[in-house]
């Protein structure tokens, strides 16, 4: 029996599913190189590579939600697909295909913060949406029986094209712990071949003719738009038309959190050969654009017809089958095919040293039911990996919405070769795998050179003004000098060319008043003064010409001869004695009479005025009476005056007293007047 054209009509002869991205599990690797630009063009900025050359790489994936198989059994002799496959037919099954081949491509740095990539790429994507799996199952049987199924409104797109892309990425923001880079890819698209089919309320009824099988009938209702990049009914060979072209754009951003950045490691962002981030966040939009097939055709077919098995078997190809059996109208003479626009986001966590965990999601943002619109299958994945310069291993764990299965894979990268699959582990153990994929490639990596730091001071030689001698970042890698050899480093020395103590920030102490007392010790740094007075001049408070340090009476003017105190003149002594002569005592007693207190107060006042003078109080008597008693009485009376003065605040240290009895008369004891003069207390200045 000839090829089943109805199977082509509803399923495009393939039960396959497009992965959300190519090179799943490999792309997040910091050593993915030029391949990473396909997922996010910003990823190549600040790359681990100086140059990365892809010689050849490919990523292909198949899958579906109709059939589940044990993948490796399929290749065994005698495997019966119809009998052994796990079937999951519904009224809206889906099928996709993705093949991605990267030809000679290269990425390289054009400046420290700017990177360029140029790549060549061939792609083929097939989408079959909302096909009735029961119809597919019935048509695929060799021995069919009567059936009647609503096919519904399936949408199928098959597109293949070549790409020439130029990607530019740059560091957009770099401050402390925060690092942001962006990228853009502009690509020229060369269309190769396109098929698309969109049904509208199609129904298929089969009636078997047991006597004449070739007269068995297919009754179809509904309509369908069918188009292709050329009229394959007249020429089945693919004709690549240079006018069938288009343009596309990819956009991306990547943010990195670099907590190990610090002021003394400001160069960490310049270390190209090492990982610097703890967390990396990326987001991109890919495949914005479309292609126009200049010689494309598109027709609207009226499917309200009944055809026989013989009509079906005799058709040489799908285009001829439609033209020979159904009426149609031409819609236009050109075909535009839209790219499978999608958003991608990922988070990469550097768990510890060379161990990472990546989470990413891929979301198609175009309508899957739009005419001639390719789309991706939405996917989420989690990929732990070990990553180093010459070797990486990764285990992608993913879930795709069409196959509706979790998949576990494995991948390896060496310096020049990588191979992996996001489903190989699942395929090996599952009896009903609905997807399979593989990616591999060979390349020539030229890694960034390890930055030199000969003196190990954390400042790279390229920025180090003293590359062989360790020094701090603040001094451009040079040790701090000490030009004046005072033990204070120049960075802390306010007088780097003149030696000085640390207490004065490396500057010598000044002596502004030139008094021989350094300002640090000078209590009067602007006025000359002796060291004994802390560098201050001695004061003369009372202005008597005797400095306070020598002035026994610093607040009262005096004479130099009397050490700054006022002189006690003979006039003063006379005044004192005038007061003392008027001091009266009780007869034969040393008791001072009250009426003498005013005179004593006068003595106190004068002694207070001359508070630096010392006085002696001498008691005297007349010759009347016993000599011994008179001597004692004179002593007692002198002491009584002394005690009175002390009681009034005169310091006892300034006073002394003595009695002389009758031994020092000043007048004759033979007369009453003379004896009165001899009974006295005299005040003598003690010098």
UniProtKB/TrEMBL annotation:
<dbReference type="InterPro" id="IPR050330">
    <property type="entry name" value="Bact_OuterMem_StrucFunc"/>
</dbReference>
<dbReference type="InterPro" id="IPR006664">
    <property type="entry name" value="OMP_bac"/>
</dbReference>
<keyword id="KW-0732">Signal</keyword>
<dbReference type="Pfam" id="PF02412">
    <property type="entry name" value="TSP_3"/>
</dbReference>
<dbReference type="Pfam" id="PF00691">
    <property type="entry name" value="OmpA"/>
</dbReference>
<dbReference type="InterPro" id="IPR028974">
    <property type="entry name" value="TSP_type-3_rpt"/>
</dbReference>
<keyword id="KW-0998">Cell outer membrane</keyword>
<dbReference type="InterPro" id="IPR006665">
    <property type="entry name" value="OmpA-like"/>
</dbReference>
<feature type="region of interest" description="Disordered">
    <location>
        <begin position="527"/>
        <end position="547"/>
    </location>
</feature>
<dbReference type="InterPro" id="IPR003367">
    <property type="entry name" value="Thrombospondin_3-like_rpt"/>
</dbReference>
<dbReference type="InterPro" id="IPR036737">
    <property type="entry name" value="OmpA-like_sf"/>
</dbReference>
<feature type="domain" description="OmpA-like">
    <location>
        <begin position="572"/>
        <end position="687"/>
    </location>
</feature>
<protein>
    <submittedName>
        <fullName>DUF5723 family protein</fullName>
    </submittedName>
</protein>
<keyword id="KW-0472">Membrane</keyword>
<dbReference type="Pfam" id="PF18990">
    <property type="entry name" value="DUF5723"/>
</dbReference>
<dbReference type="InterPro" id="IPR043781">
    <property type="entry name" value="DUF5723"/>
</dbReference>
<feature type="signal peptide">
    <location>
        <begin position="1"/>
        <end position="20"/>
    </location>
</feature>
């Amino acid at each position: 029996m000839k090829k089943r054209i109805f199977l082509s009509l509803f399923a495009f002869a393939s039960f396959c599913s497009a992965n959300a991205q190519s090179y799943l599990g490999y792309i997040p690797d910091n050593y993915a190189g030029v391949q990473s630009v396909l997922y996010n063009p910003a990823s190549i900025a600040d790359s681990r590579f100086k140059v990365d050359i892809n010689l050849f790489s490919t990523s292909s994936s198949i899958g579906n939600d109709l059939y589940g198989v044990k993948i490796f059994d399929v290749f065994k002799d005698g495997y019966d697909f119809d009998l052994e496959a796990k079937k999951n037919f519904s009224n809206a099954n889906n099928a996709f295909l993705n093949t991605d081949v990267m030809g000679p491509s290269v990425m390289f740095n054009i400046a420290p913060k700017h990177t360029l990539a140029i790549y060549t790429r061939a792609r083929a994507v097939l989408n079959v949406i909302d096909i009735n799996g029961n119809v597919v199952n019935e048509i695929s049987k060799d021995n069919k029986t009567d059936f009647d199924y609503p096919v519904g409104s399936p949408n199928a797109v098959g597109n293949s094209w070549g790409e020439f892309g130029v990607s530019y990425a740059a560091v957009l923001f770099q401050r402390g712990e925060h690092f942001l880079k962006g990228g853009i890819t502009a690509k020229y698209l060369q269309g190769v071949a396109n098929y698309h089919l969109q049904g509208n309320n199609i129904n298929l009824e089969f009636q078997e003719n047991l006597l004449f099988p070739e007269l068995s009938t297919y009754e179809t209702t509904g309509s369908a738009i069918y188009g292709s990049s050329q009229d394959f009914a007249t020429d089945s060979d693919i004709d690549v038309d240079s006018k069938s072209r288009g343009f596309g754009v990819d956009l991306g951003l990547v943010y990195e959190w670099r907590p190990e950045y610090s002021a003394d490691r400001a160069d960490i962002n310049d270390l190209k050969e090492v990982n610097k981030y703890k967390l990396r966040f990326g987001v991109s939009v890919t495949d914005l654009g479309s292609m126009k097939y200049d010689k494309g055709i598109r027709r609207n077919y009226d499917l309200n017809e009944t055809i026989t098995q013989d009509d079906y078997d005799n058709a040489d190809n799908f285009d001829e089958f439609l033209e020979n059996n159904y009426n149609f109208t031409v819609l236009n003479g050109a075909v535009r095919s839209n790219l499978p626009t999608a958003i991608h986001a990922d988070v990469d966590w550097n768990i510890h040293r060379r161990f990472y965990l990546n989470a990413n999601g891929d979301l198609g943002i175009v309508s899957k039911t739009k005419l001639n619109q390719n789309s991706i299958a939405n996917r989420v994945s989690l990929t732990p990996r070990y990553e180093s310069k010459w070797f990486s291993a990764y285990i992608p764990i993913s879930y795709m919405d069409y196959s509706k299965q979790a998949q576990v894979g494995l991948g390896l990268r060496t310096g020049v070769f990588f191979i992996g699959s996001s489903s190989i582990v699942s395929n090996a153990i599952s009896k009903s795998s609905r997807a399979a994929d593989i990616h591999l490639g060979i390349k020539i990596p030229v890694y960034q050179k390890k930055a030199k730091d000969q003196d190990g001071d954390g400042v790279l030689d390229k920025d180090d003004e003293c590359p062989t001698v360790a020094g701090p970042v603040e001094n451009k890698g040079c040790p701090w000098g000490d030009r004046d050899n005072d033990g204070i480093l120049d960075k802390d020395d306010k007088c780097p060319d003149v030696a000085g103590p640390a207490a004065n920030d490396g500057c010598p102490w000044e002596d502004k008043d030139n008094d021989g007392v350094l300002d640090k010790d000078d209590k009067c740094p602007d006025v000359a003064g002796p060291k004994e007075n802390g560098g201050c001049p001695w004061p003369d408070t009372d202005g008597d010409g005797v400095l306070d340090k020598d002035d026994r009476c610093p607040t009262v003017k005096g004479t130099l001869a009397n050490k700054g105190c006022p002189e006690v003149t003979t006039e003063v002594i006379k005044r004192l004695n005038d007061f003392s002569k008027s001091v009266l005592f009780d007869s034969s007693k040393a008791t001072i009479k009250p009426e003498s207190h005013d005179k004593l107060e006068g003595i106190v006042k004068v002694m207070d005025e001359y508070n630096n003078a010392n006085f002696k109080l001498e008691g005297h008597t007349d010759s009347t009476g016993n000599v011994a008693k008179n001597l004692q009485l004179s002593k007692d009376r002198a002491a009584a005056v002394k005690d009175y003065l002390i009681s009034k605040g005169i310091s006892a240290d300034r006073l002394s007293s003595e009695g002389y009895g009758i031994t020092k008369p000043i007048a004759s004891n033979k007369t009453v007047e003379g004896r009165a003069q001899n009974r006295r207390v005299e005040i003598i200045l003690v010098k």
